[in-house]
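Sequence in, structure out.
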Amino acid sequence: MSAFIKSVRGNDPDAALYWLAAMIAAGEDPKFIARRLLILASEDVGLADPRGLEVAVAASQALEWVGLPEAQYALAEATIFLASTTKSNAVGRAYFAAMADVLKSGSLPVPPHLRSSGAGRRSYKYPHDFEGDDVDQQYLPDKLVGSRYYFPGNLGAEIKLGERLDRLRESRPGGNRRKEPAAGQREADPMSAASEGMRTRQANLRALAEEQRRDSGE
């Protein structure tokens, strides 16, 4: 599986097909292969080619519907597409950078104008009421104003996304052009942030379950 994933990530559809065939012939669970393709579609292709996730999902659904041996066509199609298309890991880097801030600072207060109740919500500006369906407005918590997590790549569909975000920032008062992370800037470690995020989630779920148990008088 490691060789398979690295071949897809490395833009080598021939090697990827070989390792796919080797796994199928060896008796590997095809659902495991489909799950890994789903992960790779977001982790390594991402928004450089959003079709990647659609193809991976379709292959997974095809496997559920027809099973082996016919689903080998769908798995092979997804493998070739993901191995051949434009790659970007910007989605994962952005998400785990955000997760790192959550783990560092906790769940920060929601700005009053973004809340669903309270006096502050009346100051919320509805973007569709403004030209370009966009308006200069704070969405991050006060402590994180100005933070940047998502830096679109320079390949595939992310070029257009980056250009649009640039235009929006430049049209807002004080908006800054898109820039890459500063040289030497420490990026969040995805595996560490993911593991810590899941540990925090499980702890919060246990605390919530205990609170609900006490409230129910059990």
